[in-house]
Amino acid sequence: RQSPVEIRSEEAQHDPALPPWFASYDPGAAKSILNNGRTCRVVFDDTFDRSVLRGGPVQGAYRLRQLHFHWGSSDDHGSEHIIDGVKHAAELHMVHWNPKHGNFAGALKQRDGVAVVGIFLQVGNTPKPELKRILEEIDTVKTKGKEAPFHHFDPSILFPKSRDYWTYEGSFTTPPCEECITWILLREPIVVSPDQMAKLRSLSMNAENEPFCPLVDNWRPPQPLKGRVLRASFK
């Protein structure tokens, strides 16, 4: 059950029983932003049901733990999931875990342990004002290992207008690629400007005292479906 996968919309099955999903996020839960050498990540307080995802293909409330990005070295690729052959410039992942498994480490061992909302970033003329806050902080975490405080941020401002989604059972896309994720991939991308994409590419995968090495192409190629069914909440 590895991820990402290529979604062919004619093969995705419309499931009228799939309910809509909801997120209620507390802006006060945002804690910090960091560059771990593999991605840019924003971390949230998940010690109680403060910022949660409900509905859609999951049962109960899943707690928001972090969000991060995958992007390419140019605007024509970078997303992990591919839709009908189309690669987007980047993909944003909002990672939630199921508190019924005790803690995040416990959730990683369960099929229903984690739910990730995936949002595609498509390059257009208009910058996404909601992304500005994250990108403004990038200069403070330019190099690997840098972390900076990041407070009062409501990540739901990053959602597109449409809540239509595809869903399937998959995995993390970074080692050890635990197969514990229910994916909720949003059909509608959000539009970002070329400058905003360039900002992501200005991060370094090396530490401060090492030569600058651009952090780009941190995406994993698509994995075989192996009989898994992709369901769609829309026709």
Automatic annotation (TrEMBL):
PROSITE patterns named in the record: ALPHA_CA_1, ALPHA_CA_2
Catalytic activity annotation: hydrogencarbonate + H(+) = CO2 + H2O
Bilayer-crossing regions: none
GO function term, MF aspect, one: carbonate dehydratase activity
GO cellular component terms given for this protein: cytosol
Family affiliation: Belongs to the alpha-carbonic anhydrase family.
Alpha-carbonic anhydrase domain boundaries: 1-234
UniProt-recorded name of the protein: Carbonic anhydrase
